[in-house]
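[SOLVED] Predicted holo structure with pyridoxal-5'-phosphate

Edit: marking solved, answer below. Original request kept for reference. I posted the sequence and ligand SMILES and asked for the 3D complex as structure tokens.
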Amino acid sequence: MSTLAGNYHPLDIEIAHAQGTWVTDTRGNRYIDCLAGYSALNFGHRNPELIAAAHAQLDRVTLTSRAVGNDRLEPFADAITTLTQMQMLLPMNTGAEAVETAIKTSRKWGYDVKGVPPHEATIIVAAGAFHGRTTTIISMSTDEQARAGFGPYTPGFRVVPYGDAQAVRDAIDDTTVAVLIEPVQGEAGVIIPPEHYLTALRETCTENNVLLVLDEIQAGLGRTGATLTQELSGVRADLTTLGKALGGGIIPSSAVVGRADVLGVMTAGVHGSTFGGNPLACAVGIAVAKILETGYFQERARTLSPVFSERAKDYAGEGLLSDVRCIGLWMGIDVPHLTGRQVSERLAARGVLAKETHGNTIRFAPPLCVREDELHTVMDALGEALRA
Ligand SMILES: *Cc1c(COP(=O)(O)O)cnc(C)c1O
């Protein structure tokens, strides 16, 4: 019997080494990594600039706790707020913690600033969303597998259909403090909302004195061809959660960025984290900001996107795919007649790592350093997997 808890059903592959777009398993097989750690590896495995920043920091100081300051913390907050054009940053570690922080901030803002009666704050969320695995976050999930058996659930959430701005308008009342939404739903299978969805949510939130909270933990930091996906709609959220690629594929690192007057409700002692804002994560985060500042990876995501979308559309035309959704270097496909699991196993046998998000949906999210010919290799392998 394994000593490892069985809360995952991974492909039967053990990775031993990785560089850039490629991973090598313990049997010596090489794969193009279209998982990229759920987009934590946007800048590639062992990106040289990020590894150098981590090494340099390992030789100075790695952890202080927030009981004292550290000389990487303010530069990290400066770098990420400048990059994202936000006013303030609160550092945490995992994505779920950033979402929890956004929920707590929204509720406290609701009570302290908006004047919602104590314990009555509500937050509107979307069906099909994924925001993490804590007890509060699974309380608002519509995924039965993620919820069942973990009650009692945290109250204070209203679930509306994704992509429907009118449903959000209808759900708002005087107790509503925030609308918490993914700009593109990642775990749901790269679900892209209608064109004016985010703009409509922005207007509705402003009109009703409700915070717009966008979860960019998976969509942000280059994946969709922009630093933040909200930029593609010309929208600025009041709070934005970041994670995954913020740690450069090296260390867990997350943050809430946004309006200073909103994050300002988090005064000394009301919230915190032992590891949040640690010097190592900050040093890597500063290097992540430097990389994204150049726009290089965002540009690659935009220019290489058609390789995915056009070739996938060809397969859809042949009836091999029942749906294709693509934005930047992020693609969700639905396969008829096969399970996602079957396709991901066939892809692995052909040297491509990709995994079903659920049922018959598979997501492709290669590191943004992937080359055009490598993307064609991925799409060739997909064609073979679908026909096999
Ligand atoms: C992955 C993810 C999270 C949770 O991040 P963890 O680091 O796994 O806790 C939250 N929101 C979105 C949109 C995600 O994709």
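OP edit: DSSP finds 13 helices and 15 strands in the chain. Thanks to everyone who chimed in.
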